[in-house]
Amino acid sequence: MIDHIGFPVSDLARPRAFYDRALAPLGIKLMMEVTEEMTGGHGAHLGYGRDGNPFFRIGTGRSVPAGVHIAFAASDRAMVDAFHAAALAAGGRDNGAPGLRPEYNASYCGAFILDPDGNNIEAVHHGAPA
Question: Which range of residues forms the domain containing residue 33?
């Protein structure tokens, strides 16, 4: 089981503004902030999560990869819709409107957004179609 995952970003200001708003409908919030000074010059980091676990982390100090894909679990289809709307409002670019993706499985409902660095961020619900 994965405890946390993270990737580098071009800077923290734009991604922070994006993720603060885009992840809120999923109940995920900023839980941890590590400054450049705290790491001895090895980058600043933010940790997002819930229930005391900052399981999603972004940070500076390394080269930015291309094409990272992260999928966050949503408890229902309305949460998938809310994520998509919030992420667009936060400056994300649409990469797949909310809807069923039967090519994955009959009950897979997902929405895809490109974050400020072009990473493919998804909210997904695995449940009975509404």
Answer: 5-126
